[in-house]
Amino acid sequence: MGTTETASERPTVVQYTDPMCTWCWGSEPVVRRLQTVFGDEVRLRYVMGGLVEDFEEFYDPANDISTPAEVAPHWLEASERHGMPVDTTIFETDPAWSTYPASEAFVAARKQDADLAHRYLRRLREAYVTEVRNVNHRSEQVELAREVGLDVEAFTAALDDGTASAAFEADLRRTREAGVRAFPTYDVRGPDGERRLSGFTAFDQLVAALDAVAPSVEQSSPPPVRRFVREYGPVATREVGEVYQLDDGKTRQVLESLVEEGALRRERRGNGVFWDSAYGGER
Asked: What pLDDT score does 81 carry?
């Protein structure tokens, strides 16, 4: 397979998603691998699907969930399957009663810069799921915006003047018109057509869809682990394992050796561990 020749030929992976969806959080290892091995060969875009408008009127019959507190066991069960850490303390201290404010915050970020918005979405997920921070609060949204390098004044203006709300409503319409019923859902588009994948999706399934719509796209080898962590950290153990195709035991062994060398530092959160560069620096 050769490299795509023009930007217009690049395939696009669209993820219909929600900042607080546990299966979207659990898909981060696959997204990290996609970004790492395809790089600029593949565009990644996010559409906010609106998981819960208001828990006062919400019921999930498949998981028997009608209140935020009932989400906690679901998170733990899902974490056992997808391997990403969770901290259910948030449901005891300050649970979100809607996923809409965090979604609007993401689209406010997206108005500025797609790459920074992707970092921002990652931080929204990470903060709510593993740091016990209710990212519906404006103070948390602004702090994360500042952290990833967004223009905070423009970010807050988009939230206040209705720009973000209108963009979020457009995402909701797009989700409905696309017939999306599960998060995450992927639309994979390329020169040779389009494929849809619904629900928790393995990397190989995404690659098969990419091969079908853009057979010229080529994977590359991932960088050394320490460089990957420096670029994307903090990262969870499962993310490193997915990118380098290692089981959890071997992944921990590799990461612990880098901690002993002084290259990485570890941080326990909830039921898992995150790893980050010991040197800091820009990502």
From this structure: 95
Please check whether residues 142 and 240 belong to one and the same domain: no
For 159, the token pair is 């939230």
What's the rounded Cα separation, in Å, for the pair 63 and 133? 24
In angstroms, what is the C-alpha Rg of the chain?
Answer: 19
* Residue 118, SS3 per DSSP: helix
Classify residue 219: in a domain, yes or no: no
Give yes or no for residue 282 having a pLDDT over 50: no
The dihedral built from the CA positions of residue 269, 52, 45 and 166, taken in this order, carries a sign that is negative
User: 280 and 245 in contact (C-beta within 8 Å)?
Assistant: no
Strand partners, 45: 14
166 in the same domain as 30: yes
Q: Is there a domain that residue 200 lies in? A: no
DSSP conformational letter for 136: T
